[in-house]
Amino acid sequence: MVSSVGTTSGTSLLSQAITAAKSNAATNAASASSSTSTSSSSSSTSLSSLGGNFNQFLTLLTTQLQHQDPSNPTSTDSFTAELAQFAGVQQQVETNSNLTNLISATQDNQMASAVSLIGKTTTASSSSLPLQSGSASMSFTAPQAGDVAIAVTDSSGNVVKSETVNASAGTNTWQWDGTNNSGTQLTDGAYTVAVEGSSTDGTSVALPTTVTGLVTGVSKSASGVNVDMGNATIDMSNLTGFSGT
């Protein structure tokens, strides 16, 4: 656990934490809004382009056969090479299609497995902090004992909570009661957290965070399977553990 310190302590660290939290919020928002459309669009465009090349190659090959000079036909070696290219392009189209289907099937299996996590308390390496039932919890590892600054922003990047705490060396847990800097209770949802501390040589360093939340659902995107902690969406690959409560 950590304890609060005076507001005049760690001003520089707090400023860096606020900047980092705003940056993380912008990154999370951009990733959530564009990952599915960008990935699926890129995959679709690539396959469409390959399919177009395949059809164009087929048209050129048949046109060549139709218009070749009977007295001077295409040599056997050249014709064989062209057929080999034709077969290669065809295989590539089929491979891409089958790979897309395989990825989709794998994600479906992951979703089926992830359903068992619903209702369980889960930890994840993430800056997305889920506020559920008016509270949130996260942990971080401090290189040494001393001041550590914590900043929380909402989905729009506005700083709602910031404070400097006294942390011990090693793993520390920070509990948030869901109130902003003015003491007003905020609504449940997805927030972003950033933590800044000092390394053993005295320089400031960003401390990775592990958030805790109750899994309320699972979803699939082009980048993989996600777990939902309330309104916070976290990639399943970032999960670090879970319990039955």
Automatic annotation (TrEMBL):
Q: Where is the FlgD/Vpr Ig-like domain?
A: 133-200
- Specify the domain of life of the species encoding this protein: Bacteria
UniProt cross-references to Pfam families, sorted A to Z: FlgD (PF03963), FlgD_ig (PF13860), FLgD_tudor (PF13861)
What is the protein name given in its UniProt record?
Basal-body rod modification protein FlgD
From which lineage does this chain's organism come?
Answer: Bacteria, Pseudomonadati, Pseudomonadota, Alphaproteobacteria, Acetobacterales
Sequence similarity: Belongs to the FlgD family.
Function, as annotated, reads: Required for flagellar hook formation. May act as a scaffolding protein.
Q: Which UniProt keywords apply?
A: Bacterial flagellum biogenesis, Cell projection, Cilium, Flagellum
Return the InterPro entries for the record.
FlgD, FlgD/Vpr_Ig-like, FLgD_Tudor
